[in-house]
Amino acid sequence: MKVLLLKDPKENENGPDPYIKELGLHGLEATLIPVLAFEFISLTSLFEKLSHPEQYHGLIFTSPRAIEALKLCLRDNCKKEAWKNSLEEKWITKPVYVVGKATAGLVAEIGLVPQGEDCGNAEKLAGYICSWGSRSSLPLLFLCGTLKRETLPTILREK
């Protein structure tokens, strides 16, 4: 039997997409059809911000796509070299807040130490940041997409 899955493929070092693998174990032939087209914008602006860690208290990543944006910024050899030579060690001293274990794993892959992965949603992460984060006058750099909800920024602004 054939199955159509309307989702992007998620391939990693463990092989094909887990849905393809699982359905295959049950004798089903699955095909993935991406339902959304996505394009990163402002990668130059993002790298400019990442180039000045002294201007930020820390980072917030609420999705794997945000880490994908950072990785895309670092594809260029000059930028990758700048990250490895000085930026990474400066950012590693700052808190890096995440929602969820998948995002935490990707943050760890780029050499940073995630915090808050057990929070599970933006509201709980905001509480975590407010309870554990030091009271810095510097802003947090929040890597997000245009479809983000205002929960996290609103709670953090209020605190």
Structural class given helices, strands, pairing? Answer: alpha/beta
What distance separates the N and C termini? 54 Å
Radius of gyration: 18 Å
| Tally of strands | 6
Give the arrangement of secondary structure elements.
Elements lengths: L1 E4 L12 H8 L3 E4 L10 H8 L7 E4 L2 H10 L3 H15 L4 E3 L2 H9 L4 E2 L6 H11 L7 E4 L7 H8 L1
Parallel strand pairs: 1-2, 3-4, 3-6, 4-5
Helix pairs in contact: 2-3, 6-7
Please provide a written account of the structure:
There is one protein chain. Helix content is 43%, strand content 13%. It contains 7 helices and 6 strands. It has a 4-stranded parallel beta sheet with strand order 5-4-3-6, covered by helices on one side. Strands 1-2 form a two-stranded parallel ribbon. Helix 2 (43-50) packs across helix 3 (64-73) and helix 6 packs parallel to helix 7.
What is the gist of this entry?
This protein is of the alpha/beta class and 159 residues long.
Could you list some keywords that capture this structure?
7 helices, 43% helix, 159 residues, 4-stranded parallel β-sheet, single chain, globular, alpha/beta, two-stranded parallel sheet
